Amino acid sequence: MQTATEAPQAVLEIIDVSRRFGDFVALDKVSLNIQAGEFFTLLGPSGCGKTTLLRLIAGFDQVDEGEILLDGKPLTALNPEQRPIHTVFQSYALFPHMTVAENIAFPLRMTKIAKPVIDLMVREILEDVRLPDKAKHYPDELSGGQKQRIAIARALVNRPRLLLLDEPLSALDAKLREQMQIELINLQKEIGITFVYVTHDQGEALALSHRIAVMNKGTISQIDEPSVLYSCPDNRFVADFIGQCNLLDATVVSVAEKQLRIAIAGLGELDVCANPEIDFAVGDTCALTLRPEKIRLAAQLDITDDEVLFSGKVHDMLYLGDVTVYIIELANGVLIEAMLANDAPGRTRLFDTGDAVKIAWHTDAGHLVA
Amino acid sequence: MPNRAERLSRILLSLPPGLYLLLLFAVPSLMMLFASFRFSGEYGGLAPWYYIEDGQFTLDLTLENWQRLFESDIYLGLLLKSLAYALATTLICVIMAYPLALMIARSKKRHRDLLLLLVILPFWSNFLVRIYAWMIIFSPQGALTAALNVVTSSLGLEPITLMFSGTAVIICLVYVHLPFMILPLYANLEKHDHRLLDAAQDLGANRFQCFWLITWPLSLPGIYAGAVLVFIPSLGIFAIPDLLGGTNGIMIGNVIKQQFVESRDWPFGSVLSLVLTAITLVLVLLAAKLGSPAGENNGKK
Q1: Interface A:B, Cβ pairs < 8 A
Q2: How large is the angle between the packed helices B73-106 and B266-298, nearest 10 degrees?
Q3: Which chain A residue has its CA at the smallest distance from B204's CA?
């Protein structure tokens, strides 16, 4: 048992859970805790085990090793229908022969709730998802976004302890998806039920979650808040998977208390802030992770003492509307991605391919990983 | 709005079956309707529908064939009994076909074709041959009856005979029509989205509730389709009651055949036949109406 002085009792505890399919290890000793009221996301590329973990929590699959506790009690012996956990499926899985109201009433009918109370609860949740006039419609008559909201309403109506969402927005177009993201955040805040959200879309994960578990090949790479995950990734996988990132292989040259000196092939030696999580020794290999938006880019640059400066030329550029991404070729063919907001008035183009430019970054702009 | 070429091709495509049905169903039905108001000829067939006397043209038609239908309760009773037999056959077929169709639909893809082949295997031998086979099974000396009577006598009950009874007719009707229930049911069940059952279970439904609230209502269009395919041929059949029914197991189809063949009373045969057709049509329309709303919502999107 863990000491009680730590965080409050977790709603869901996953302890050393493993699941194998033949020779394939889908989950390898995964452990994590999810707190009450949290919007928790399992993020990772396809095949990382996130959906397997979700199915284990829902009860559609059984663990090979380890344990899953809900409010401190093991779930293993309970069938899916006995768990106070509901799932929003990727395909919505609305019952085509039932109206919207009947669909939403379904989990309530499985309990011993009186009919008038059911009607009231259905009406209330339809208000919550802002579709009060669709009660008598059939699922086939709804748009994708409406189906999605009904699926969520159906899963929330009898207040499960945990709501699992399996890539629920992947079938929607970009505009609608953004709108639904905002609605999901508000809905979760309003009703206060713990959400466990599965996605492979890092943007969606960053936008929605209180905390994110980044998964890779059946293990958890890092669990943190979105801003920590983005700015201080624990390892190369997380740095690379979340957002755009320059990854520069390096060797530690010297170690001071708060600063390290590293040597990057082709670029020479430069100073970086130390990573308090990792004790580097001289000679260790490491990687400098550097977000494109943290790099200054100009034709001429004055730098402070805490910055490092390089000269290069524009190798490639991607105009994205709000920003332009420039691939800068430094000495010895090293490529660095930098990003500039297109904030100049009119259609001014800052640089063109082949232009000579200077780039600079602050010594604490980069983040060192092993 | 379909363009002209499309409309033309539609008309051309529907022309052969349309003509076929017009010539071989609609026209004969009208001829039967006409025949039902005529007198029968002296040696069978139909008497002329008019005569000319003193240069005066007179129609020679009658309503007495239709009156005869209601004069005794034999015919209506037989009609009701046939309806009951067909209904019982349909219900037994549903009960027997459902678990099998569900099992086939949920078995592995590579096993399904083999299982379906087994379902239609009986069609490879002749219909009449299969009924004669049942005569052997049902005969008083047959193994089935003998075995059953060992049981009944040990319980101190009267010995039973299966041959020439309504029971024999219904058993054989079920045997012949079972594939017609299994196939449409399978076609329906096979399309079901298994994720709906996952969702139902996730929302708190046990296995029975999953079946009764999801699988069963979604399979109703398949049941209606199968019911039409089983009920209609069962209602009009005469070969099975002829061979297995004896006098007790007789159905309306036998009487119609009798009127045309043995009694040579074409007009009254036409009356009975028309009544049977009318009942069938009403029931089919009813089944179509029942089957369609659920059918619309069964489509995947």
Answers
A1: 69
A2: 30
A3: A81
Could you say which of 2.40.50.100, 3.30.360.10, 1.10.10.10, 2.60.120.10 is the CATH number of the domain covering A244-369?
A: 2.40.50.100
User: pLDDT tens across A186-196, in order?
Assistant: 999 988 999 99
* Inter-residue contact A239 to A245 (CB < 8 Å): yes
Judge whether B179 and B186 are in contact, CB under 8 Å. no
Q: Which of A86, A95, A111 shows the shortest C-beta gap to B202?
A: A86
CATH superfamily of A12-239: P-loop containing nucleotide triphosphate hydrolases (3.40.50.300)
Put simply, whether B205 touches A (Cβ < 8 Å) is yes
- B195, B203, B206: residue with CB nearest A91: B195
pLDDT at residue A313 greater than cutoff 80: yes
Q: Give the nearest partner residue to A93 out of B196, B206, B301, using CB atoms.
A: B196
Per-residue pLDDT tens digits for A146-165: 999 999 999 999 999 999 99
Q: How far is A163 from chain B (nearest CA, A)?
A: 11
Contact status, residue B77 vs residue B85, Cβ threshold 8 Å: no
Contact state of B203 with A107 under an 8 Å Cβ cutoff? yes
- Contact A87/B196, CB-based, under 8 Å? no
Q: Are B94 and B228 in contact (CB under 8 A)?
A: no
Mean per-residue pLDDT, B269-298: 79
| Range B69-298 classified under CATH 1.10.3720.10 | yes
Mean pLDDT to the nearest integer, A264-271? 84
- Alpha helices, DSSP H, located in A47-198: 50-58, 100-109, 115-128, 144-156, 174-191
Single pTM value for the model: 0.81
Q: Could you report the per-residue pLDDT of A56-92, keeping only the tens digit for each?
A: 999 999 999 999 999 999 998 899 999 999 999 999 9
ipTM over 0.90: no
Residues of chain A positioned with their CB less than 8 A from the CB of B299: 96, 140
Q: Domain extents for chain B?
A: 1-35, 69-298
Q: In the structure encoding, which two tokens stand for residue A10, read together?
A: 């977790």
**Across-strand partners of A210?**
none
A80/B200 touch (CB, cutoff 8 Å), yes or no:
no
| Domain extent listing, chain A | 12-239, 244-369
Nearest-by-CA chain A residue for B195: A93
Q: What is the mean pLDDT of residues B163-185?
A: 93
